[in-house]
Amino acid sequence: MSTTGLREYLDGPHKAARDVVRDGLAEHADLLNAGLTLSRDEYRDKVLEMLQQITADGHTGRGFPKEFGGQGDLGGFIAGFETLAFGDLSLMVKAGVQFGLFAGAILHLGTTRHHEEYLTDAINGRLLGCFAMTETGHGSNVQALGTTATYDAATDEFVIHTPHPAARKDYIGNAARHGRMAAVFAQLVVGGQTHGVHCLLVPIRSLNGEVLPGVTVTDCGPKLGLNGVDNGRIVFDQVRVPRTALLDRYAQVDAEGTYTSEIENPDRRFFTMLGTLVQGRVSVGGAAINASKVALTIAIRYADQRRQFGAPGTAEEALLLDYRMHQRRLLPLLARTYALHFAQAELVAEFVRIFGGEGLSDADEHDRRALEAQAAGTKVLGTWHATETIQLCREACGGAGYLAENRLAALKADTDVFTTFEGDNTVLLQLVAKGLLTGYRESFGKLDPLGTARFIAAQAVEIAVEKTALRAVAERLRDVVPNRNDKADPDAGLRDDAYHCGMVRFREEHLLAGVARRLKAGIDAGDDAFDVFNRCQDHVIAAGRAHVDRVVLEAFLAAVQVAPEGSVRDRLKDLYDLHALATIEGERAWYIEHGRLSGARSKAITALVNELCALVRPHATELVDAFGVPGAAVDVPMVVPSQHE
Amino acid sequence: MSTTGLREYLDGPHKAARDVVRDGLAEHADLLNAGLTLSRDEYRDKVLEMLQQITADGHTGRGFPKEFGGQGDLGGFIAGFETLAFGDLSLMVKAGVQFGLFAGAILHLGTTRHHEEYLTDAINGRLLGCFAMTETGHGSNVQALGTTATYDAATDEFVIHTPHPAARKDYIGNAARHGRMAAVFAQLVVGGQTHGVHCLLVPIRSLNGEVLPGVTVTDCGPKLGLNGVDNGRIVFDQVRVPRTALLDRYAQVDAEGTYTSEIENPDRRFFTMLGTLVQGRVSVGGAAINASKVALTIAIRYADQRRQFGAPGTAEEALLLDYRMHQRRLLPLLARTYALHFAQAELVAEFVRIFGGEGLSDADEHDRRALEAQAAGTKVLGTWHATETIQLCREACGGAGYLAENRLAALKADTDVFTTFEGDNTVLLQLVAKGLLTGYRESFGKLDPLGTARFIAAQAVEIAVEKTALRAVAERLRDVVPNRNDKADPDAGLRDDAYHCGMVRFREEHLLAGVARRLKAGIDAGDDAFDVFNRCQDHVIAAGRAHVDRVVLEAFLAAVQVAPEGSVRDRLKDLYDLHALATIEGERAWYIEHGRLSGARSKAITALVNELCALVRPHATELVDAFGVPGAAVDVPMVVPSQHE
Description:
The structure is a homodimer.
Chain A: H1 3-11, H2 15-27, H3 31-37, H4 40-56, H5 74-84, H6 89-109, H7 112-124, E1 129-132, E2 148-152, E3 157-161, E4 169-172, E5 181-190, E6 193-203, E7 215-219, E8 232-236, E9 239-242, E10 252-253, E11 259-260, H8 266-275, H9 279-303, H10 324-355, H11 365-396, H12 398-402, H13 408-415, H14 425-438, H15 449-480, H16 497-524, H17 529-535, H18 537-561, H19 567-586, H20 588-593, H21 599-616, H22 620-625, H23 631-634
Parallel strand pairs in A: 1-5, 2-5
Antiparallel strand pairs in A: 2-3, 3-9, 4-8, 5-6, 7-8, 10-11
Protein name (chains A, B): Acyl-CoA dehydrogenase
Family (chains A, B): Belongs to the acyl-CoA oxidase family.
Organism (chains A, B): Kribbella alba
């Protein structure tokens, strides 16, 4: 097989941007050891040095408007950021904080004066900044933040204040050591009235690095991973900033203390502001998927070299990758990595369509909400996938996988928090499900259970209508796909795309309808709204997950269908089948419970997954080579022993 | 509920030994921060200092014969070792290497002269030693080690040699910095004939710490975790030791170069020698289970304090632990931790029965083989459980869980290798399954696939007989337990012990019979033995796992039945039901596929697991308090915020 052809297809439209970052990583491969050899503060400073380096290379400004030194290439920017995950992940996260979150907040929440004053410096890395949203007391529930920004008309200033210990800003990247300014999310209080969470630019350090009066910064100390990022805590004691520090694209305060916003509903205003920051979730998901590629490259190459046990009397022991269990553990994860790669590419294309182009575009609100759900879902699956995959890769490499020199340790430790940051995965899946249930339409309910439950009750009639339509779909499927009368040939049609898509779609729609029914029944019975929601929280999350599984599967299928004919498409089709059937196999209990699979057909699927693993196995090394991870990131001693003797 | 009563019941017969270690950990709590504040070498030296301290406290010699300074209390020794897992895990592992593996090899594989010369010093920590078994090229397949020990009759010496790079000893604890002697496993060559792997004592450092001539030691460098243990690599270049260096309990070489052993079959000799080292696996499993207790204590206390979201209009947000998803994620793991605790207690009791008492006992070989399988199985489940539980606890504590100060990071990193060391888990499960298939009886097949396959073919007739018996059992179960005709009341009997036990036993026996049938069919068809085995490797592993699941469930049930009446037994019964039903739920696809569950009953089980979570929830904090983890290990800033402000 031509690895080049497959790699080009994977790299897609942003190949050039990816290659720039690959070259940079290859050139500065020494950073990969920095976390092992330097003290924590030295490591942080080294990461900062590398950040300035990649900034000089011109990559990091790629996504910003040309007038501020950028290149207006949002897709290339995201692709390049994802590619940073092939290298040191502290560098990637620090770049994400500086260019994605901090500069992104200025770009999306600020107006011309903020852009002109700060954007060029932020993009060039001269103005290092923090994204001070999360507090000790509130992470996922951002609307309940405690920090206040109170307007003082007498001086035309906002007073930034931390009213109690739980309201201190926590886990803030760039805070402990390098940040000079923070984009602070706080409850905006004007004329005694609270208008909800808004964002303001607050200087925290002087030009020579001293923490400013009224600001207290402490270090979060060592972490499980990402120790090259200087996470810290910030407490504000009546810190004054001019009125113009408010990033005022969606809400303005004039000198007289009059608050205005074109979005009247406070919830809707809040979610609109937050929605502009979707790039963070898009980026984290992509980074997690790429970190999985690094781990799989290492573990699959190792398994294709390492021999252990095997039939006695033969000259050599057997390769690990020839064992069925080893194939079973690694190859479905390889297939899912491909699936997620294409789902991420689809997400990035949609993100570029909505946010890309010259300057800022005001895309249709409905599309934005759909994009947010897609970004949340891909982030959830991508990050859980990374945790699972890197863990299994570590175990599949035994004791050697535990040594830092073989890089799986750092991958595991550094990516672990991805499931939590940019939104906890279980919270995000509820967001996805809620989006599906309400369709958002013109109403913006809160993320809280009561709002959801009430809203859903109101929607129940419409959903009942959809259910009728759904039933027709289900009946049609039942005719097309043998499942009850499959005893004669339980294998029939198992590699048929329409079968896979029908199954995952049935699951999504059935779960969704079930959630709506349960919520409505509870509300109708007059039960406490929190209890009603809580009783079906597991169903809500399962419905969200089922939706994302379907989206990912369809993205993979679409990518196979337009892939170059020949070996590229053939290889992808095998991987797609493996992914589709492993996905169905993973939920086979549910399918059987709901009459969509017979026991015999379920067993046939398991047998076919085994066969597909064997079919993919001879190409496994080429399939990881096609990811194009730079050599330094994967040429570890256990794979290249000569480095080592 | 009385936490004290439950804690005493959990501590069982070795309460005193556990409390001694608890007190020591509380006294030396500063070690918990050593890994965060010291350089790697300083941390290693600090761990050594603590090792000498706990040795002085008298704990570490507890399991050795009184004549060498021990206390002859094997059960207390293991219980104390497990309790070390409540503290710094590097200390625990270093103690395991020194007192379990190194001193244990001398005790079990050596004879009087070795005991008299070395044992007291080893127990007192004056003679620090390594257990040099694993090589770069061979970990799980110990029989294929490359290091040689060749007898030179001219000088009455053995020559220890590393013939090629892959034969270097690797990942050896105590090697990089502190060890003075190594128990080296090597192919014994006498008079040109190889007799398989034996163990010899080889000095590697002088009294003042210099590496001896012919020995090359290198450092394995930083690891994912356990960085307080000085793992290293050892290469031998024709190193000479006297003939008496051979630990000669099971095989002797006389001055003329005559090799003798009371065990003629080399495979059987090898497995007998290895079998005496079962204590390592017993200990690792127990340590993993106790590490899970620490993580759960932290995560459940946090979830019972931390509020986020909740119904608006109410005064407070909701506690995390009141959310169904949070209960679903944590409480079945809490129940499984209890189950494993009792399974481990049962294993230790059996271990003491066979290996305990004054001096060495020669227990019945059949019992020893059964003990080895039980130890392997408990180690596998306990260590995978730890990896899964600590991961989920980390995620359940969000960003705070990622900070080193909250200890989940160290628990995760340090325990991760437990699934790999003392035998890779997937290899061990195959060992368990093989033991069940062959019953071992008088024959000792190799661990390799061919041996297994051949042996199993020979046993097929007997298994067929057993299958007939099994069918009768299955029929009987079907009558007792409603499963096909359960539509009228799918909940009936779900909390009945006999139902749980019948289900897990059916699964075990069905899987086992299936493996035997597949192996026999393949062999009968004349297929390549490796292929035959490999094709059903996933079934073999599932059968091993099903066996251990059953053993663990029955151990938990037995412990409930003899627990003190009243609140202790009531709490344990709820946890037992939760564990039993969550176990069945986890395999519900298989049960449905095999006609043991209807879809309706399967859904009823899921609903009941939810209910049981809600039933356990009010007692959750007390249930973790009963583990008796010393305060310093769990009073982390996120749980005790005042430490921190």
